[in-house]
């Protein structure tokens, strides 16, 4: 069963998503899925995953220079 993890981020443009794409693709498994909703005021990142934890995703974005906070 997949978990849906939702994060508030500081990613604000398509160029930033393009920068993160290879990193996120390398982190997720083949059947996992991620996307950004940059039209939302919180610049939402949604990740559908069976194996990843929220801290691993937050850490990846933070190491890349972005804020990333899991939403409940």
Compact summary:
This is HMA domain-containing protein. This protein is of the alpha+beta class. It has helices spanning 14-27, 54-63; strands at 3-9, 33-37, 44-49, 68-70.
What does this structure look like?
The structure is a single chain. The protein has 72 residues and is of the alpha+beta class. The chain has one domain: Alpha-Beta Plaits. It is 33% helix and 29% strand. The protein has 2 helices and 4 strands. It has helices spanning 14-27, 54-63, and strands at residues 3-9, 33-37, 44-49, 68-70. It starts with a strand and ends with a strand. The model has no long low-confidence stretch (mean pLDDT 95).
What are the key terms here?
single chain; 72 residues; alpha+beta; Alpha-Beta Plaits; four-stranded antiparallel sheet; 33% helix; 29% strand; HMA domain-containing protein
